[in-house]
Amino acid sequence: MTKVLFILSAVVILVSCFFAYQNGREFATVRKNVADVAANIKTEQVADQKLITSVGVLRGDIGRIQGDIDVEAEKLKAQRNKLAQAEGDATRTQEEYDAKATKQKELAAKLEKLPKDVKVETLSEDIARLKKEKLEFEAQAEAKKKEVIAEEEKVAGIQGRLDAVVHKIEERRKNFERNSLAARVLAVNHEWGFVVIDAGKATGLTEETKLIVTRGGQAVGKVSVMNVDNGRAMAAIVPDTVTSGEVIMPGDRVILENLVQN
What we know:
Blueprint: H1 2-113, H2 123-179, E1 183-189, E2 194-197, E3 210-215, E4 218-228, E5 233-238, E6 253-256
Antiparallel strand pairs: 1-2, 1-6, 2-5, 3-4, 3-6, 4-5
């Protein structure tokens, strides 16, 4: 039994040694592979760094080239603007030339139409003579204008006097109509002491007008206007002026106490 166990132990030890040896070889292989991969990674990193550096250089070159392109584009734009301006100037110059040529033709045609006694050589003298005649005509026109103004002032004065006469006549007519007042008492309120008459502002009555109330040619009393409308007036009865035994009644006539003097 002991012998069998010994043999089994020897077999296990041998197997363990075999696997240990095998694992050692595989570990060495793996470690070598890892070292190779690390070397490759380092090589790739160096290459990547070189590529990054190259990309940076290229970006700088691209930036400079783009700047040069922008500068050239601005120059091209400026040249185009100058070309457009030159074309515009050329067009305006041609238009001015055409206009001057047309004006020259018109002047030549006008010169041909000038009277025979008018010459270009004496044109300045003729212009001076015409200016002198123009000034003389203007002086005459100014004198006529002053005469017209003076006549207008005379007419205005006459019109003013005429208006004054017309106004005076109108005032006299109104005063005559007012002095010819023949109004009637429409209503009487004895309790409050006032009457209503059929005359108003249109007949010249005011709130200061005094009236005499008559009946059959005899005075009955006096009233004092208090309120005036266009066609009606209200007047207060003056108590001390009413004839004894009489009362003011509707239908009584009223006339002015004081006539208006013209």
